[in-house]
Amino acid sequence: MQMLSRTLAVVVFAALTAAYSGQIPLGSPQGVSENQDNVPGFHLDLDDLRLVQFSLDAEPEWMTERQKLQAKAKGQDYMDITNTPFLGTGPKKPRFSYPAPNSTIVAGVLSHLSTVEPKANLQHFTSYYTRYYNSDTGKASSDWLFAKILAYTAELASEEQLPLISVESLKHPWKQNSIIVRIAPQDALDSDPITVLGAHIDSINRADPFGGAPGAGDDGSGTVAILEAYRALLVAAYIPITPVEFHFYAGEEGGLLGSQAIASSFEAAGKVVRGMIQFDMTAFHKAGTREEIAVITNEDQVDAALTEFQIQLIERYLDIPWVKDIYPGPPGPSSDQASWAKAGYQTCHPLEGQFKNANSHVHGVEDIIDISPEFSFDHMLHFSRLAVAFAIELSSY
Ligand SMILES: *[C@@H]1O[C@H](CO)[C@@H](O)[C@H](O)[C@H]1NC(C)=O
Ligand SMILES: [Zn+2]
User: Fold this and answer.
1) The model's pTM
2) SS3 for the chain, per residue?
3) Domain Peptidase M28 spans what residues (predicted)?
4) How far is the CA of 189 from the centre of ligand 2 (A)?
């Protein structure tokens, strides 16, 4: 078994290397070939026409699902805007400024965080063959996460807290569901500013979307990190003054699909967002480098004011330093915060380390918990701390 998976990993790694250097000819055995049939357990229509935007200021292009997947295999990021072409065309959103962190309760809540539950949760979450958003196992993984959140809520919520919590499993035109967990005060108004914390449920094998994709780092690590933050809010019986929501998005790897659907529904309902933070890759601490949190500053995807506030949270509540970093290469939507930024909401995005030090094993069969001692639940814990601080500081007024 060990040998087999090692051999497989080497083969896929070779395919990935080729993919990143743009050498996969269309129709090669790697990736999606021109005449690829669907595979049992998957539900893609490879001839489906999709409207795809490669950067937030680029003209959208029509292409088939097959071409979309081939672009992904070449390492290109994009938004698939077929179902959400009008995202960002609604009324202008209010701009918030962010007073310095001043909570007296965050420190106490942080004491409830540990690596025990994230480890167990990620062990399970990476046991699916793939969490690809249009596959049966991708759907099963979102069903499991929904059940886990319901179980935490039933088991841990205080009597006063329980009626203030809603947990919703959101159906989409593809197999996998997104999940929205909301804690709102009793007298919440529709106009209250909402604090949003996000991560994505799905994973992908970029070289072969029908292949294995355990997705430990991308983005199992973000998913279980914010789930742990939610667990701590339950244990602490935290009740916000304004609503706080945890979002677990389906279909990020399909072109930010779940987050665009949800951001669109927020926009259509005229909802106000005080700030959105996206956790995508939180576990990798590259050997021989300083342990730090990278604060992403790509201007098209994050808000400068909220990013400065995020830095203040790190300085106040974490004991590792921050460093500013920018996703390199041609501009492309890097994760779900881009959907919210496109809608005009204020966003920020922390990363496990500088991009050059981030987990290079993602997007294939190598993205597992024990790929290397560099995959660290202790490092991930810093992100759960940041999530707790963000949730409480912004929903306490
Ligand atoms: C913290 O700052 C907010 C925003 O300015 C304010 O509304 C709140 O009363 C302050 N809380 C404390 C505990 O000082
Ligand atoms: Zn990701």
Assistant:
1) 0.91
2) CHHHHHHHHHHHHHHHHHHHCCCCCCCCCCCCCCCCCCCCCECCCCCCEEEEECCCCCCCEEEEHHHHHHHHHCCCCCEECCCCCCCCCCCCCCCCCCCCCCCCCHHHHHCCCCCHHHHHHHHHHCCCCECCCCEHHHHHHHHHHHHHHHHHHHHHCCCCCHHHEEEEEECCCCCCCEEEEEECCCCCCCCCEEEEEEEECCCCCCCCCCCCECCHHHHHHHHHHHHHHHHHHHHCCCCCCCCEEEEEECCHHHCCHHHHHHHHHHHHCCCEEEEEEECCCCCECCCCCCCCEEEECCCCCCCHHHHHHHHHHHHHHCCCCEEEECCCCCCCCCCCHHHHHHHCCCEECEECCCHHHCCCCCCCCCCCCCCCCCECHHHHHHHHHHHHHHHHHHHCC
3) 179-379
4) 33
